[in-house]
Design brief:
The protein has about 625 residues and is of the alpha+beta class. About 40% of the residues lie in helices and about 15% in strands. The protein has two domains: about 1-175 and about 195-225, Aminohydrolase, N-terminal nucleophile (Ntn) domain (Glutamine Phosphoribosylpyrophosphate, subunit 1, domain 1, 4-Layer Sandwich); about 240-385 and about 430-510 and about 535-560, HUPs (Rossmann fold, 3-Layer(aba) Sandwich), CATH 3.40.50.620. It contains 27 helices and 17 strands. Helix 6 (about 240-260) packs antiparallel against helix 19 (about 495-500) and helix 6 (about 240-260) packs across helix 22 (about 540-545).
Length: about 625
């Protein structure tokens, strides 16, 4: 687990050590155990190392092949590297380290881009071919590890984080207002744009090649394509539930065991829910006295549904049964204010959710371990959000499905509110069609929609491509801020393949009720279909009933949320006022001050719940202060 960066200058200007080191210094938090660089004339590649496998210098990067042709800078972990290593040894390749890095290097040198489909793990890869003067960038299937790039006149620049790119000499930072409008609609960015012009996120499951011919424009030498995508599609056969349960049991155990490989101590998050509880249960069988970590919240000023947000009691009960060495922390109103400037610098741009609890729990875990297991991915693969899918399960065609789901995913501002809020810069963003952005996520996945299960599979596809993608970026940035590697066993290749073919009927409990859903029904419709329940992840719940107690496996779905709706109106109101009600706030260089304050007031006056919007505005303000 590391940080990578590099630059190619097509004008032929020599890259200096100072330039590369300045780029990698910006991401030193990602690799506190070592640094390295490789420079040849107009090409420079840098690396910061967080040592997890093979702690010796033999695993240092950038790593150069024995024939001197290939140079690799790589961030990630390949959990099946030992199996791949045996394949390569059978081809006569010898190894000088016990690292997965060397396996990645020779796998790519041997099989080219086909090696990417062999890798079971998480990765962001930069491979320079000295012979053909070509750079390969690649990201893992699911987007667990980030990788950014910039086409800057005659330079191609890349890095694990945007700050590595912006630290390149003479890089001009300009706000991407169109991407900001996208974020202020979805509380996420679905395209590969970022909030900085000229910086792009390489999409999950994609590879990009840069052919370096100094006689051709840079834009003509870049090719990109997708080598893998999700394909949720019920298998067309009689469902034998017992067989699915047995296969899930085998694959889930295999996934967790694969991701325990480490030469440093490993722990696990433990929220009290089924995803982290299941992972901890299986991992603790292999690692006695494993350390676990929980973040709770002071609920003394909370109300309503927020009173269920603290899961420490549940986590403590699971820890006691599994005999883990358990650590917990309690967040209070004011903790967000204390970390927001640092958090926004590490996160680099706002993304999904109110992520400061993730920042604090990663900070806690990093004091004890260098690797931590996370339950991310379980909801998106196995249907953890039934109240979302039920809204669209009875649509008649793709267009009505898009209409319904698009309305739901306007998480921050409606179209009308967008026009008002972006009034100062409307001419520069008015051509952004957020509904088209939403629709394009589905690519070719819009055929054969004639049953509720088809629409639900489309929803699972959409959320894996967007919501999960955003969560993974947050998880990576905020764990690596503390030199902590996060692993996600639910995103094991074999387990994902199983989940994509697992019938919807085994994921959702009340699909038969939804099939009879009446759009004209008025009484209790919201309670019946749209409330948070334990309807989702049925096959996970049943399978894990073999290992953990029913009060965990049958618990109502609970997200990792803080009681900010109450805090923003109470103990944190001074922070909200200080940040968003000052006339010199940076956000008002872009957004309409009166429109923003009207929306914030609607929350403070208890007329609407705008906690997500307020969080996003606070985060955006600090990001602007840090960036410009």
């Amino acid at each position: 687990m590391c940080g990578i960066a590099g630059i190619i200058n097509l004008k032929g200007d020599v890259i200096t050590s100072h330039v590369i080191r300045n780029m990698t210094n910006q991401i030193a938090h990602r690799g506190p155990n070592g640094e390295g660089e490789w420079i040849e004339n107009n090409v420079g590649i840098g690396h910061r190392r967080l040592a997890i496998l093979d702690l010796t210098t033999a695993a240092n990067q950038p790593m150069i092949s024995k024939n001197q042709r290939w140079v690799l800078s790589y961030n990630g972990e390949i959990y099946n590297y030992k199996e791949i290593k045996k394949e390569l040894e059978n081809k006569g390749i010898s190894f000088t380290s016990s690292s997965d890095t060397e396996v990645v290097l020779y796998a790519l040198a041997t099989w080219g881009e086909d090696a990417l489909l062999k890798f079971n793990g998480m990765f962001a890869i930069a491979l320079w071919d000295r012979q053909n003067k070509e750079l390969l960038l690649a990201r893992d299937r699911y987007g667990i590890k980030p990788l950014y790039y910039s086409i800057d006149i005659d330079r191609f620049i890349f890095g694990s984080e945007q700050k590595a790119i912006t630290s390149a000499p003479n890089f001009q930072k300009d706000l991407n207002k169109k991407a900001l409008l996208e974020y202020m609609t979805f509380q996420n960015i679905f395209t590969n744009q970022t909030l900085l012009k000229r910086i792009f996120l390489l999409e999950a499951g994609h590879l990009l090649r840069v052919k370096c011919d100094q006689g051709q424009p840079l834009s003509h030498q870049i090719t990109k394509h997708q080598y893998w995508d999700y394909e949720f599609n019920d298998e067309d056969k009689v469902v034998n539930k017992a067989d699915y349960l047995e296969e899930l049991d085998r694959l889930f155990n295999q996934a967790v065991n694969r991701q325990l490989v480490s030469d440093v101590e490993l722990g696990s998050y433990l929220s009290g829910g089924i995803d982290s509880g299941s992972i901890t249960c299986l991992a603790s069988k292999k690692l006695p006295n494993m350390k676990t970590f929980t973040c709770g919240f002071d609920l003394s000023s909370a109300s309503g549904i927020e009173l269920t947000f603290d899961e420490r009691v549940k986590a403590e009960a699971i820890s006691a049964k599994l005999q883990t060495e358990h650590y917990e922390m309690v967040l209070k109103a004011g903790d967000m204010e204390r970390c927001l400037s640092e958090l926004s610098w590490h996160l680099e741009e706002p993304r999904v959710g109110q992520s400061y609890p993730n920042f604090y729990i990663a900070k806690l875990a990093s004091k004890f371990v260098k690797v931590v297991l996370s339950g991310s991915g379980g909801d998106e693969l196995f249907g953890g959000y039934p109240w979302r899918y039920y809204r669209t399960a009875n649509c008649q065609n793709f267009d009505t499905y898009i209409d319904e789901y698009f309305t739901y995913w306007q998480r921050l501002l409606s179209h009308e509110e967008i026009e008002n809020v972006f009034r100062p810069c409307w001419n520069s963003v008015k051509d952004v069609e957020t509904k088209d952005i939403f629709k394009k996520v589905f690519s070719s996945h819009k055929n054969n929609l004639d049953q509720p299960k088809d629409f639900i599979n489309h929803s699972l596809y959409f959320e894996a491509k967007t919501f999960l993608n955003g969560l993974l970026i947050v998880e990576d940035k905020l764990s690596m801020a503390h030199g902590l590697e996060t692993r996600v066993p639910f995103l094991d290749n074999d387990l994902v393949d199983f989940a994509m073919k697992c019938p919807v009927s085994l994921k959702l409990k009340n699909l038969n009720i939804v099939q009879g859903f009446n759009e004209n029904e008025t009484s209790n419709k919201k309670r019946k279909y749209f409330q948070k329940t334990n309807d989702g992840k049925q096959i996970i719940r049943e399978m894990m009933g073999r290992y953990i107690d029913q009060d965990v496996t049958q618990a109502t779905k609970q997200g990792f949320s803080s009681p900010d709706a109450s805090w923003f109106k109470g103990q944190s109101i001074d922070f909200v006022n200080k940040t968003l009600y000052q006339n010199k706030a940076r956000i008002y260089d872009i957004l309409d001050e009166n429109s923003v304050k009207t929306l914030v007031n609607s929350h403070l006056e208890c007329k609407q719940n705008k906690r997500l919007l307020i969080w996003s505005l606070l985060n955006l303000e600090h990001w602007l202060q840090n960036t410009f």
